[in-house]
Amino acid sequence: MHELLAAATDKPQFLLGNEAIVRGAVEAGVRVVAAYPGTPSSEIIDRFFQFGSEAGIYVEYSTNEKVSMEVACAAAISGVRSLCAMKHVGLNVAADAFMTLAGVGVKAGMVIVVADDPFLHSSQNEQDTRYYAKMAGVPMLEPATPEEAYRMSIEAFQISERFGVPCLLRTSTRVNHCRGPVRVGTIADTMAVRGVFNKDPFNLVVIPAVGRKLRLVQLERIGKIKEHAEKSPLNFTVGNGGLGIITSGISWLHVQDAVRSLGIGDKVKILKLGFTNPSPKAVIREFLSGVEKALVVEEIEPVLEEAVRLVAQESKINIEIAGKGPGLVPREFELDAAKVKRAMATFFGVPFEQPEAYAAPGLPQRPPTLCPGCPHRATYYSVKQVFGEEAVYPSDIGCYTLGVLPPLKMADFLICMGSGVSTAGGFSKVLDRPVVAFIGDSTFFHAGITGLVNAVAHDHRFLLVILDNGTTAMTGHQPHPGVELTLAGKVEPKVSIEKLVRGCGVKNVAVVNPLQVKKTQAVLRDIKARMNETGGVSVLIAKSPCPLFEMRALKKKKKIVFEVAESAESGESCKRCVVELGCPAFAVTVREGGGEIVGIDEALCNGCSVCSQICDGIKPKRV
Amino acid sequence: MSKNDLAVRIFFTGVGGQGTLLATRFVGEAALEEGLPVLMSEIHGMAQRGGVVESTVVVGEGISPTIADGEADIVVAFEPLEAARALPKCGPKSVVITGTTPILPFTVSIGQGSYPELKSLYRMIEPRVSMLLKVDAESLARAADAARSSNVVMIGVLAGTGLLPISRENWEKAMQKVLPDKLIEANERAFESGYRAGRQAA
After folding, report:
1. Other Cβ atoms within 10 Å of A617 Cβ, number
2. Tens digits of per-residue pLDDT, A324-365?
3. Residue A558: which region, alpha, beta or left (left: phi > 0; alpha: psi -120 to 50)?
4. A586 contacts in chain B (CB < 8 Å)
5. What is the pLDDT of residue B50?
6. d(CA A46, CA A538)
7. Which residue of A228, A279, A361, B192 is surrounded by the most CB atoms within 10 Å?
């Protein structure tokens, strides 16, 4: 049995925030779960995928977040509890479904987990999902700890079902990836359930007349949810002092820590909000009436602060309120206890001496990089050899985005999933330079196909390279519709990328194994020549499995590695391999008496052979 | 010190592939076995591709799992360059436990920049913290016939220092939870050798 399905004991389990959400949802009887992986939300769908069939839960890795939300909402409309989970920018993709679903509503509980990423640990922006909850008028819960994530996951299903609207469970990286004790409850049963669909087109088919009716229903519903939020025990106060602090989510932990270490526990009164949308105005009003001044502590945007200021204005409460601002709570990046202490010290006038920060200057950086043997490196190398510095290289989101770093430097523009394909078309219309776009296989399914159809339809002129490593590597090797290798063994792909590309109307299509350097470059030169003649869109599918995943799935052991031949060791190395390929298995050493020599770290070398194809001085060696 | 006053912030740092997250979880589970209030925080994502992996364990009621600059009571660095990089997390009272085997950053191995001499890394840390414990975890692991368990050696050292109020029994229970049965014996040897080194040093 999967550990997340284990029966409750008298001892707490040490769960990741994401696992706590999963456990809560299972106890709440979720039966349909759909998601596209995205850090820091991925473990939610991954855990469900591990035990779905065992627990009577239908689980799918959807092609993108919008699809996942639509699959989940159909279940909830049919009376089956459902959940979808995504990272913050995933909600942008799903926003079209989200905004109208918020009006149409659901029959059974539906929970939408959205994970924000303050400090952009692994994201392209720092947007604040709480604005989405406000815009859609859906209930929103914000846990601070794994324990709360577990409880709120259950509560979110109840709220959703009670008010007939999806409930948003908003987390942030430090909640998703925080592990803490959770006392789990009982899983009622693990029987799969079938839905019931009652035809009701004049409430479920959103033509304008229906939409107008639903708009009124929605506004009335928001009022009812607000009444519920006002009474929710998820919003509570701590302490009896005159210095007010209002907070939610992970900031609650920073606040407790700061209060404790400043020793002002008897001077403060804290309002901790867990049910934050619709804003519980009466709760906030009562709190503001009982304090001398109030500091709002929250990450990213001043969402809570604006709500608090609004209450003060409406209720004519004339106390000093602060939140974001110089010396106060920063708007950018994550908070920590020190930042919160500084804000409290500034606003409350309590003594706090910032400790002297030690510096450790001049250390070499350790940036993440493409792994040894990564086929993306080989593809980038060959494309650069053929198209050179002149070409513009729009890129996309995945491991291969690391190609932006030297020495490859093969990414010129990136904004979001799928932008590689569509922007390539736009560039081609205004630039007289070759345009070569890159997109990964999973990202192509997620957001690349419509862009490709558009490019074909409008005679955009570029080469699209689909970096097909047979998995969604960056987020932890999740499957996608085109996979041929799974942890359960080899499978026939459900959707062939090549056929799909041809079906989109692309005529100039080639498939190569990028680890075969000469062949790949010959094909690229051929494509380049044809692009000059005929224009239009060409697609090169560079297909070679992610070596990390292949090793895991096939339990493959490496049989050969590569080494620098003795004959090549006599002189100084030309370092072309290092300068042009930059595989992390290379090691440059300075020899006595000067001169640099390249070696290969046998432990790191994956045996891909690419370097030996560009340099005669590199030879295979059995291990 | 009563449980209510307890506040220990441990910052872990290492390189992708060193087993730092497993080691961190081991510490968290041990604290939980001991019945201590504990949170652990980890950062995934880009860090997995040969980059720095940072995680924390904080023990005590109402402690933020994000450790601010200057606030780490203990730093456990699985790699010496990363110990130096974590120096901003330290203050005069911090204890730093570091592994002594360098892992060259990719930038260094391709000849951009150089790896500082270990001595200079230690000199950067030692005078500014209360104690710097240098642990040749790889040799200890090999000597314990558990070559792949240098991460567990490091946790053994942490346990041996007694800086965390966790009984030996609960450390062992926690190991059972985080490791599969077939790996327990070797890791117990690794833990024991680290534990002894930690006790001697403390």
Report:
1. 19
2. 999 999 999 999 999 999 999 999 999 998 888 899 999 999
3. beta
4. 109-110
5. 75
6. 35
7. A279
Which of A322, A272, A330, A341 is CA-nearest to residue A301? A330
Q: Write the residue in B48, B64, B87 that is nearest to A254 by C-beta.
A: B64
Q: Do the beta carbons of residue A467 and residue A410 sit within 8 Å?
A: no
Query: Residue A390, SS3?
Result: coil
C-alpha A518/C-alpha A524 separation (Å) is 10
Interior CA angle at A442 toward A437 and A448, to 5°? 45
* A122 closest CA partner among A61, A41, A240: A41
Which chain A residues in 223-252 lie under 8 Å from chain B, judged by CB atoms?
250
- Rounded distance, CA A36 to CA A38, Å? 7
Burial (0-12, 13-18, 19+ Cβ within 10 Å), A534: exposed
Q: Which of B40, B49, B177 shows the shortest C-beta gap to A369?
A: B49
Q: DSSP letters along A418-430, please?
A: THHHHHHHHHHHH
Rounded CA separation A448/A440 (Å): 9
Bridge partners, residue A164, by sequence: none
Token pair in block for residue A436: 């070569």
Residue type at A595?
G
Integer Cα distance of B4 and A436 in angstroms: 61
Residue A399 is nearest to which of B49, B66, B111, comparing CB atoms? B49
Tokens of A195: 């839905």
Q: How far apart are CA B85 and CA B63, in angstroms?
A: 23
Q: Is B176 on the interface with A (CB under 8 A)?
A: no
pLDDT digits (tens, 9 = 90+) for A104-140: 999 999 999 999 999 999 999 999 999 999 999 999 9
Tokens describing residue A280? 């519980």
Distances (CA, A) of A578 to A211, A258, A422, A516: 61, 48, 33, 19
Lookup: tokens for A454: 């558009």
Write the pLDDT tens digit of every residue in A183-196.
999 998 888 889 99
The domain defined by B3-136+164-179 folds into: Pyruvate-ferredoxin Oxidoreductase; domain 3 (3.40.920)
Q: What is the CA radius of gyration of chain A?
A: 28
Do A383 and A524 touch, CB atoms closer than 8 A?
yes
The model's pTM: 0.97
Which residues of A, range 46-65, sit inside 8 Å of B by Cβ? Answer: none
Preceding omega of A12 cis (within 30 degrees of 0): no
With vertex at residue B175, the alpha carbon angle to CA B171 and CA B180, rounded to the nearest 5 degrees, is 170
Give Cα A336 to chain centroid, integer Å.
22
Q: Which residue of A has its CA nearest to B6?
A: A260
Contact A281, A308 (CB under 8 A): no
